[in-house]
Amino acid sequence: MAPLLAAGLVATTTAQETAPSEFRERADGIFQAEAGKPLKRAAKKPPLGKDRGNYTRAYSFSIVQFAARCFFLDEMLDEANAALAENARHYLDNPKDIVDRDSFHWHADIVMRLIDMYGTHGSSHPGRLTSETEELCLKPIWIYVEKSAKYNKPDHATTGTWHFHSTENHHAMDFSAHWHFAKLAKDRPDYRDRTLDGGVTLKDHYRAWSDYIIVYCRERAKKGINIEIMCPGYNSVWLKGFYNFRDFGEPEVRRSVDMLLDLYWASWSQEQLNGVEGGGKTRIRGVNGFSASRHGIPTLAWLYFGIGQKPTIIQGEINAILSNYEPPAVVAEIAHSARMHGPYEVRQRAQGLGEQGVGDAILNEGSKPNRFRTEGGGIVRYSYCDPAFTIGTLMTEARPVSDWVAISAQSRWQGVIFPDNPHARIVPVVRPAGKARDVLNGHWSVQSKGCLITQKLKGNKSGGPMIVWMPEKGMAAPVREDDLVFVETEGAYALIRVAGSDFTVSDQPVTNPSKEGSTRVAPPGRLILPKSDTAPVIVEVMAKSRVKDFADFKKRAKACELKMDGSVLSYRSLYGDVLTLDTRYKKTPTINGEPVDYAPPAVFESPFLNSDYDSGVVTIRSGDEAKVLDFN
Question: Which residues partner with 161 through β-bridges?
Fold first, then answer.
């Protein structure tokens, strides 16, 4: 029986208690397609570094995916219970794997969802997951929570949820494990008398983390959703525990998380094209920014909206598949028809400034949290969304890398995506130097409508050359005419211009080392390589519907005025805007004479999503339909 809820709140249920919907049919089909197939274990891999645990993330994901499918379909229950028991015993036999950040907590929240749905007191089909399996599965999670509780605290009263260890997604996976374990174990005879660091009981731990989650959701609505901005992989694992809060938490937790999920999906929907996320991003690591992601957020988008490519791999998306959360109708309308309203601008604020923490893959006495500074400005995320493309960037001042917490400055992505092909894009980016995997604080930029000007920052870390990359497939080959490069897609024309420097155009491969030690290679593509390391790069894109033909576009582009006033580049764009960028990094960029405001009054501003900074009240709107999210 569903718990009694406060007035005005709607009870949430699990997947198998709801009437079928298009989402439910697609989600159920993920499991049904694998019906009857035996467990196929992923390999356990050696440690990623000295003094670390084994790298077992993929192994454990393969176990919990198999178990979830079996419990959902009511098949091979003995095998599913045996698989979960095997997984738990591995960690009990290898305790260092429990506390290594790249393995255990990636799947622990899924195990606890299965207990909450199918365990002894399961909300869906109790008993499919046996009491013996349940007891064994909780043992390594207790070890994790007991050790982690020394460092990760529900300290929202003093930090506002903006001080935390490691990365945004790891932090969320950590407090997901704390909250859910405390919920499950606080009344069990074998755990209820145990205490954590400082003598905290599990009941108190559960209450404190529940309060933290409410404040966490409110703060993201007030000050910006993500630090790992629009990153399809990391955002999906950041979100996965929130589906558990929403389905199994107390009423105010459920309400807060339900609104945060609505907010995230509204923000994603307004910039995507055919399931590919657009706009400026962070932590798009290695060669990931040169092709469309096939897992994580794109998987969930296919499930919710039926857009993009059908997923071939399921890992951390299991909580969402087993939840009955669906984005509201107004968000689905934005996802399906936003571009019908013509070109529009999206502005958002995001956090990133602050003090970098100290920590290894295994937290220890020397670990210190990241401390974000949320007063003042920082990042303005700007996107221009046309039916034929999305172009976007993160506008920041030319700050030194030390001003930023690393996860905000790491592998920032900017550029253009097109609807013709999921991999079609133009990416101006500073590549890592030597054997580095990432660049921190690689570039700064200014953008108005379809015109983006960007420059490599001298205050970067591990920065190699600035390049402009385009795929071999999905768009026409670039054509060079003097100091301009033109590109055509099915619905748009684009111009790339390097200011004050010659450049080469080549098809040399782009590669990056991975954390596992292998080399990853970008899809075949073409890149523009300026000879001057810090020459500004201009990218302009315009829908074909706005010009007569390609010749007309080229004529207009060649007429755009570019001039230098000392160190300040001034450029009149195809759209008639005048943008400036100081190539010596001294002056704030301007748009039509107005300096870029890095602390605008709105945290979300677009035709579909609006909220004043620090208000906690967000309006989602599409046409005559609207939904107000009041996080207060």
Answer: none
State the Cα–Cα distance between residues 494 and 539, nearest whole angstrom. 7
CB-CB neighbours of 144 under 10 Å:
20
The strand pair at 492-498 and 463-471 is best described as: unpaired
Helix 297-305, helix 232-248: angle, nearest 10 = 60
CA 129 – CA 113 distance, rounded (Å) = 11
Q: What is the 3-state secondary structure (H, E, C) of 533-586?
A: CCCCEEEEEEEHHHCCCHHHHHHHHHHCCEEEECCEEEEECCCCCEEEEECCCC
pLDDT at 465: 96
- Contact between 486 and 494 under an 8 Å Cβ cutoff? The reply is yes
**Residue 517, C-beta contacts closer than 8 angstroms, at least 6 positions apart:** none
Cα distances from 463 to residues 234, 397, 412, 534, 590, in angstroms, run 23, 18, 12, 11, 25
Measuring CA to CA, which residue among 254, 253, 287, 281 is closest to residue 268?
281
Q: Which residues of the chain have pLDDT under 50?
A: 1-19
Cα(408)–Cα(254) distance, integer angstroms: 28
Q: Which of 572, 533, 11, 74 is nearest to 250 (CA)?
A: 11
* Cα 166 from Cα 177, distance rounded (Å): 15
DSSP string over 141-183: HHHHHHHHTTT----HHHHTT-EESS-HHHHHHHHHHHHHHHH
Give how far the C-alpha of residue 430 lies from the chain's centroid of Cα atoms, to the nearest Å.
20
Q: Which two tokens stand for residue 182?
A: 């405390």
The three-state secondary structure class of 430 is strand
C-beta separation of 560 from 573 below 8 A: yes
Instruction: Give the type of residue at 489.
Output: T
What pLDDT, on the 0 to 100 scale, is given for residue 20? 61
Distance CA 465, CA 287 (A): 15
CA angle 232, 235, 241 (to 5 degrees): 140
Instruction: Return the SS3 of 465.
Output: strand
- State if pTM tops 0.90: yes
Token reading at 303: 């499930």
C-alpha distance from residue 475 to each of 201, 414, 418, 478 (Å): 59, 18, 9, 9
Contact 369, 361 (CB under 8 A): no
Instruction: Name the CA radius of gyration of the chain, rounded.
Output: 25
Q: Are 400 and 362 in contact (CB under 8 A)?
A: no
Q: How distant, in Å, are the alpha carbons of 216, 223, 588 from that of 572?
A: 42, 33, 17
DSSP-assigned beta bridge partners for residue 326: none
Q: What's the gap between Cα 94 and its chain centre?
A: 31
| Count of other CB atoms within 10 angstroms of residue 147 | 17
Give the Cα separation of 338 and 542 in Å (integer).
Answer: 18
Helix (H) or strand (E) holding 487: strand 484-488
Question: How far apart (Å, rounded) are the C-alpha atoms in residues 270 and 278?
Answer: 9
What number of other Cβ atoms are within 10 A of residue 325's Cβ?
A: 19
CA–CA separation, 550 and 492 (whole Å): 9
State both tokens at 458. 């001298």
The Cα-based distances of 275 to 136, 193, 289, 380, 489 in angstroms read 40, 48, 15, 23, 18
Q: Which long-range contacts (CB under 8 A, 24 or more apart) does 118-122 make?
A: 118/71
Angle CA 151–156–158, to nearest 5: 90
Q: What are phi and psi of 39, to 5 degrees?
A: -60, 130
Cβ–Cβ under 8 Å, residues 497 and 394: no
